[in-house]
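Progress against Task 2.4 (sequence-to-structure conversion) is shown through the following example record, which the project officer requested during the mid-term review.
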Amino acid sequence: MTTGPAPGGDYTHPVCVRFHTAIEMIGTRWTGAILRALFTGQCRYAQIKAAVPGVSDTMLAQRLRELQRNGLIERHVVPATPVQVEYRLTPKGQDLEPVLDAIIAWSHSWIPLPGPDPAS
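Structure tokens generated for the chain above:
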């Protein structure tokens, strides 16, 4: 089943909208790395930040809010002194584990490790 012509005359399959939404949800910069940190047991803000080199505090906070808004993680306040906040994957977020594992496997096959420039 297709919808009407998109701009330029192409027909768009309705499933493409779901696919595009999913790719945008997990493919936004830093999001995959943050999810990976959560899958490896990093649940506090500082732990996640340490596991994702280069992410700024502002960006990490923004991405965590987006993941929460999208229903992939939950924010839990731990009553302690000082108060602690933990982020946990929801069942929806946990269902991404085989997806991330597949991306990791693909990257090991096709993405070279950074190293010295062979041209130099």
